Amino acid sequence: MDIYSILLGAVAIIAVLNPFGNLPQFISMTDELDKQMRQGLFRNILYTSFIIVIVFLLVGPFFMRYLFRVDLNDLKIAGGLLLILVSLKSLLFPPSKNDHHYENLNKQELLSHSVVPMAFPMLVGPGTLSTVIVLSEEKGMLSTIFSVFVAFIFMLVLFHFAATIERVVGKLVLHVLSRIVLVFIMAMGSQMILVGIKSSF
């Protein structure tokens, strides 16, 4: 385990979490909420997402090896395909603000919505889960856990200053960045598939 591997893994996790794509969506979906409630909602999304990733990271390899009996190459091919499909879906069919209405929900209802659909599957989806499993197999469990911590600390800072970032950078720039990131995620998926196929044969 070294700092470079941890940072490299964190960058990969941040890429599939796609903060520059999800942040404008979350801001748009919660426009009607006051700043304090929105930040509380964002923190809950991140805490929930973090728990989902860590739990899956700890139990996923067991299911992969002993229940489904698939190896790392199978997971790379399936995970890469998922990354490509999820990115294509986001590029071609971006979610609309009108799909979600949170202004009339009470605090408990907001918390439930911060789990589904905002934490899962919007922020943490199948692509993220397969990516952390691949990282754990390649770089080791401990290194991957540290990478997850680094990635979510970055996300926590980013989401804390969400409104400021949107005001300074602008919605258009965030939208363009999110499209660029999705292309890179597709490239990561293609690379995972090619490496998986090459290693299999």
Automatic annotation (TrEMBL):
The chain crosses the membrane at residues 6-23, 44-63, 75-94, 115-135, 141-164, 176-197. It holds the Pfam family MarC. InterPro entries: Multi_antbiot-R_MarC. One of its GO terms (cellular component) is plasma membrane. This is UPF0056 membrane protein. It is found in: Cell membrane. It comes from Helicobacter valdiviensis. It is a multi-pass membrane protein.
